[in-house]
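Readers of this paper often ask what the protein records in our data store actually look like. The remainder of this section carries one protein's record, kept here as part of the documentation.

:::
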Amino acid sequence: MSRAKRAARYEAVRALHQQAISERAIARHLHMSRQTVQTFLVSESFPERSTPPYRGSILDPYKPYILDRRIGWLLEWLPTLR
């Protein structure tokens, strides 16, 4: 879901809450979970999504070897262009 849509949903939740509508009713009305409604109401400002930390690749242990091979191949290939 785009940031603009999430921000609009956040504003809708805050507006409905200002009208003294319960969290459960807001969740039903906006078709979202009660946990999301509660998160929006507890936060003081729009909660941005965080980017997940880099968990690595299964190729990470082999990157030096792959890069070394690729550079070696490139150095062998360049003289043949003349």
Summary: The radius of gyration is 26 Å.
